[in-house]
Structures are given as structure tokens and as C-alpha cells.
Design brief:
It contains 10 helices and 11 strands. By secondary structure, it is an alpha+beta fold. The protein has a 5-stranded mixed beta barrel with strand order 1-2-3-4-6. The relative contact order is 0.09. The N terminus is likely disordered.
């Protein structure tokens, strides 16, 4: 084996057994035991990039970003190809978690992405800003997972633009760190397809609380007026009665059409009667409008009452609200 030429060779059987056992332990959540085996594998084959990539991956699962960066740097130093290696992507995630922007730029560029430099020469260490468009992110993927919409800031961060349910512990406007491999897709009415990324951890919290309120909205236009009023104020309102669907894990991680509450979708898991979907339904109840709506509002506490009262004042015969509660 040539050390400085970094010639590839087959890892030893001991290395393979230790590595295979380690990933079995990772699947069982036994990270400490897996770490001991992967460290042993790296001692056995220190010139294999895979040894350090596997350790970096373990540290990513543990959210130990300093160790993930250190192992990731050793992995990329031993790579035998220039671009497209997942080692660079995981290093980019670790660098982003640590706000090590020069390293994040280097990692994304080495992976093969076109990354602009800092916004100004006076801020050379500023965040990566790629404006990658819309995407969906699965919050709390190991718990009560919830898929919400957001804006991709770079390959590893999404700003949440939906109003998450309180069970997620997340708020509108928060930025979450996400993994690189999508688990599922969402399609919109125009045929566009968006990946669903799994959240790794909260990257930047939001100071804006979430409120739950019961609305009486005679028409969809009345509901839309509140959402527009909140948006005009720089915040958000979302009709959870229309936007929330309960999906099984298999369907959540597959390609699913988004539901605006007005369409019917074939649902292989719906055991309800026509017009009365079952509790695992992926279908709305069709075009029938129900005036009572559960609505989430993301706005400062001092503004919420004014938004709701102003909304009612614009059409008091068709609008009302009650039971306002801060839920997250």
C-alpha cells in the first residue's frame, strides 16, 4: 500500500466486521458502543477515507459537530476523487452547524456546487446564502414527525414558513439544520415536485409565538383575508383545518400530493365511509366548506388581538373568533 499516493486497497476482514457491527449498533441507537468499534476500525485502517467518513457520520448522528468536523476533514484529505463525494456533504453540514462558513463554502464547492463568496469583503466569514427555493422539511423525524414548508437558505438549512403544530416544538420563522438525503417528496397542483428533508436539529430559534384560535369564517375568502392580513403585517396565519393531514410513515416518506382541502386523493389506508374519511385518511372531505376553522397564527402577543379584531371589523356578518390560546 502506498501511503502518500493513497492507493486504494481492500480493508481487512477485521475492519469490515467492526464496521458492520457498528452500523447495526447505530441502527439500535447504541452510539457509544458503535463509536468504540468505529474508532477501532479507524486505528486498523487509518489511510482509508471510509474509516473517517464513518466516524464523521456517527458524530453527525450524535450532533457532536466538533468531532464530526475533525473526522470529516480527515476523510476528505484521503479521498481519491475530486467532486461528488458524500464526505464533502457531511463536512458541509458539520461546518454549517458550527457556523464555520469558510469551511462550509469549501465543502459545498468541493462537492460540486456553485457557491458565491461572502456578501461583502468586510464580512469574509458570513453565512452561505444560495437561495435554493422551496422545500419541505420533516420536523422531529424520530418523534411526532410533521412535514412543513420552508425556504432553503443553503444545502443544509431551511427557514420554516409554515406554522408548525405545537407538538413539534417548532415555530414559524425558525431555521433548522437538515440532512442531505431526502425522505419523500411533495407534489403541488402545478406538477412541481419538492424533496422532503429530515430535520437534524434547531439551528436558529424564532422569537415569534404560535397561537391557536377558533374562527368562524363564512367562506374561504373570509379565511383567506385573515391569512393575507397576517402576511401584510410581516407574520403568518394558517388554516390548520385544511392544511393538516395525518399520514402513516410509509406514505410520508413517499411521493404525496399536497392537499389544499378542496380535492380528493386516492388513499389506500382510508377505511372510512364515503364523505367520512378514516383516521389515517390522506383525503380531504371535498369542496364542502365548514365555517368553524382551527387556525394557527404566528405573531407577537401584542399584535394578535388587533389582527383578529381588524379581520372581524372588515366583515362582521361573516367573521368571528374565540378561544385564543398561545400554544408554542
Amino acid at each position: 500500500m502506498r501511503i502518500f499516493g493513497r492507493a486504494r486497497h481492500r480493508p481487512s476482514a477485521t475492519w469490515r466486521r467492526a464496521t458492520d457491527r457498528a452500523f447495526t449498533l447505530i441502527g439500535d441507537g447504541r452510539y457509544e458502543d458503535a463509536g468504540a468499534l468505529l474508532t477501532r476500525a479507524a486505528d486498523l485502517e487509518p489511510w482509508l477515507s471510509e474509516s473517517w467518513y464513518n466516524l464523521a457520520l456517527l458524530h453527525k448522528f450524535r450532533h457532536d459537530w466538533e468531532q464530526a468536523r475533525a473526522a470529516g476533514l480527515r476523510a476528505v484529505a484521503l479521498l481519491d476523487r475530486d467532486a461528488g463525494a458524500p464526505d464533502w456533504w457531511n463536512l458541509g453540514i458539520a461546518a454549517t452547524a458550527l457556523q464555520d462558513w469558510p469551511l462550509a463554502r469549501r465543502a459545498w464547492q468541493a462537492y460540486g456546487l456553485r457557491v458565491p463568496g461572502p456578501a461583502t469583503p468586510h464580512a469574509p466569514d458570513g453565512p452561505v446564502d444560495l437561495a435554493l427555493g422551496s422545500a419541505a422539511v420533516r420536523l422531529s423525524p424520530e418523534g411526532e414527525a410533521e412535514v412543513v414548508w420552508g425556504r432553503r437558505l443553503d444545502p443544509a438549512r431551511v427557514e420554516v414558513l409554515s406554522i408548525p403544530l405545537p407538538s413539534s416544538g417548532r415555530r414559524w420563522g425558525e431555521v433548522v439544520l437538515h440532512d442531505g438525503v431526502p425522505h419523500g417528496e411533495r407534489t403541488t397542483a402545478d406538477g412541481s415536485v419538492y424533496p422532503v428533508f429530515d430535520e437534524i436539529e434547531l439551528w436558529a430559534p424564532s422569537p415569534v409565538p404560535t397561537f391557536l384560535v377558533l374562527l368562524e369564517a363564512a367562506t374561504e375568502a373570509d379565511r383567506d383575508a385573515l391569512e393575507q392580513l397576517a402576511a401584510d403585517a410581516g407574520y403568518a396565519a394558517e388554516d390548520w383545518s385544511s392544511s393538516v393531514r395525518l399520514l402513516c410513515r410509509t406514505c410520508s416518506e413517499s411521493r404525496m400530493a399536497t392537499d389544499d382541502g378542496t380535492t380528493e386523493h386516492h388513499d389506500p389506508h382510508d377505511h372510512g365511509e364515503p364523505g367520512h374519511p378514516g383516521h389515517l385518511s390522506h383525503r380531504s372531505s371535498g369542496a364542502h366548506w365548514v365555517p368553524e376553522r382551527e387556525c394557527g397564527i404566528a405573531a407577537p402577543a401584542g399584535l394578535v388581538h388587533g389582527l383578529l379584531d381588524g379581520w372581524v371589523a372588515d366583515s362582521p356578518d361573516t367573521r368571528d373568533w374565540r378561544d385564543l390560546e398561545e400554544v408554542c
